[in-house]
Automatic annotation (TrEMBL):
Family of the protein in this entry: Belongs to the TRAFAC class TrmE-Era-EngA-EngB-Septin-like GTPase superfamily. EngB GTPase family.
Residue intervals of the EngB-type G domain: 22-194
One Gene Ontology term, aspect cellular component: cytosol
Organism placement in taxonomy: Bacteria, Bacillati, Bacillota, Tissierellia, Tissierellales
Function: Necessary for normal cell division and for the maintenance of normal septation.
Name of the protein described by the UniProt record: Probable GTP-binding protein EngB
Organism of this sequence: Tissierella pigra
Reported cofactor(s): Mg(2+)
Molecular-function GO term, any one: GTP binding
Gene transcribed to yield this protein: engB
Amino acid sequence: MKIIKSDLHSIAVGPKQYPQDDLPEIAFAGRSNVGKSSFINSMVNRTNLARTSGKPGKTRTINFYIINDSFRFVDLPGYGYAVASKSEIEKWGEIIDRYLTQRENLREVVLVVDIRHEPTSQDLQMYQWIKSFGYTGIVIATKVDKISKGNWQKNVKIIKDKLGIKDTNLIIPYSSEKKINKEKVWQVFEEIIS
Ligand code: GTP
Ligand code: MG
């Protein structure tokens, strides 16, 4: 995919603030700090389009990024951020739920996990939801630059077993830092938005 243009389109908490057009959207869900915003930046060759942080809980709104004026990446707030208060957690849950259940533009929900860690029960819940709504069930296992190549397969297997995935090809090891598997992910995305 040749990226000619990428911009922040809008920031939303509720449907009234969602973009009002019918461009297709791919949304990224996952635990806080796994690297969703970094993933978006690396895919569009930007360093600071989506704001990232070493501390979890950076993205707290739904951020819509428009690419080549033709489709959007949607950065969702991360879940499982332990330091957040109960009311904050409930509020984010609602923000995410409303988008996922009501958004007609949505073509695919991609689960982003950290390849170093076994998915949590919240990841499993999210993944089962994604599958039950008929999405493909693509998993981006990011930060792969942080483990040796000899461990990729072992960690992919842990993710596969925990999430109950049959087709290993659905799990794509990725590195935003080293741009590992970027073209492969674009190939998958191109099919979704075409
Ligand atoms: P929330 O907005 O809190 O949900 O987090 P997020 O999932 O958007 O994570 P973010 O992209 O902000 O990244 C969290 C931290 O992980 C940052 O310090 C990133 O630099 C780092 N990081 C993300 N992806 C990678 C990667 O592929 N490799 C390495 N080495 N670090 C990464
Ligand atoms: Mg983020």
